[in-house]
């Protein structure tokens, strides 16, 4: 959907999205599982389009400074077109969630809808993105864990994945505002980057990720499985080294360089999906 220029978070960890950890063995990959996976991902996709589109509708003036190429900010699409798009996708998300008949999926979509609306909409007591803490909590909250059509059993891999992805979600919530500091400052959005400065928030984010990788390495070292120990330690050590090397080379005075590093963080996020199934 070019009209909304969707963000990398589109299918990252929205409620209802099935995860690799839901599969414990090859026998779990059945037609029922694949159907549930498709239903959950599509419903989450539709809801994410609503959330991202609504945010852009209420950030048109800010985006003229921070992201002038976005369709609404550039005038390529009118606000009326944006309203129509987000309304249709919200309705389709709820419609699919209702048709599936999964109460956890439907309520996860509803909670995402409420938080996404409160985050962006400019009404009294809302527009929660003005508060750095509340905004970060909203973003973290919608990255919930939900294993489709099976009870959550808190084994070691699940606890690791939940904790690790929580760290990543915090980093993403903090880092996403670093390139947008100019417009946020002008329009009174008190993000952590505005309050603490780009450089400090940048290195806080890098430090949190390196801490998460260190915990992952320790987790691997305590594994009783040799192949899991080797893969977990080696994989996270390599990613930690790459992260540190790239972070040191970022020009913090360049918006393009900071944005590029933000996209790199998303690559690390997706790379973790390859390592999580190896944790034992």
From TrEMBL:
It comes from Panicum miliaceum. Its main location: membrane. Pathway: Cofactor biosynthesis; tocopherol biosynthesis. Keywords: Chloroplast, Membrane, Plastid, Transferase, Transit peptide, Transmembrane, Transmembrane helix. One of its GO terms (cellular component) is membrane. Belongs to the UbiA prenyltransferase family. One of its GO terms (biological process) is vitamin E biosynthetic process. It is found in: Membrane; Plastid, Chloroplast. It is a multi-pass membrane protein. This is Homogentisate phytyltransferase 1, chloroplastic.
């Amino acid at each position: 959907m070019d009209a909304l220029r969707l963000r990398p978070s589109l299918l990252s960890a929205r409620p209802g999205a099935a995860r690799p950890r839901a599969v414990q063995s090859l026998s779990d990959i059945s037609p029922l599982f694949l159907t549930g996976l498709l239903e959950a991902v599509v419903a989450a996709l539709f809801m994410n389009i609503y959330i991202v589109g609504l945010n852009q509708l209420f950030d048109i003036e800010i985006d003229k400074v921070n992201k002038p190429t976005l369709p609404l900010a550039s005038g390529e699409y009118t606000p009326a077109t944006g309203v129509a798009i987000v309304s249709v996708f919200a309705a389709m998300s709820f419609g699919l969630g209702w048709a599936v008949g999964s109460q956890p999926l439907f309520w996860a979509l509803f909670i995402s809808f409420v938080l996404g609306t409160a985050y962006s909409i400019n009404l009294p007591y809302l527009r929660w993105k003005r508060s750095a803490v509340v905004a970060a909590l909203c973003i973290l909250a919608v990255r919930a864990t939900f294993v489709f059509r099976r009870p959550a059993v808190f084994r070691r891999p699940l606890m690791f994945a939940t904790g690790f992805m929580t760290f990543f979600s915090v980093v993403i919530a903090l880092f996403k505002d670093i390139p947008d500091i100019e417009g946020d400052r002008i329009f009174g959005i008190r993000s952590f980057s505005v309050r603490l400065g780009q450089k400090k928030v940048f290195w806080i984010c890098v430090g949190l990720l390196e801490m998460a990788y260190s915990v992952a390495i320790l987790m691997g070292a305590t594994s009783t499985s040799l192949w899991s120990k080797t893969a977990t330690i080696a994989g996270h050590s390599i990613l930690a080294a790459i992260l540190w090397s790239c972070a040191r080379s970022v020009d913090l005075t360049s918006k393009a360089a900071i944005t590029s590093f933000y996209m790199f963080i998303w690559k690390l996020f997706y790379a973790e999906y390859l390592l999580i199934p190896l944790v034992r």
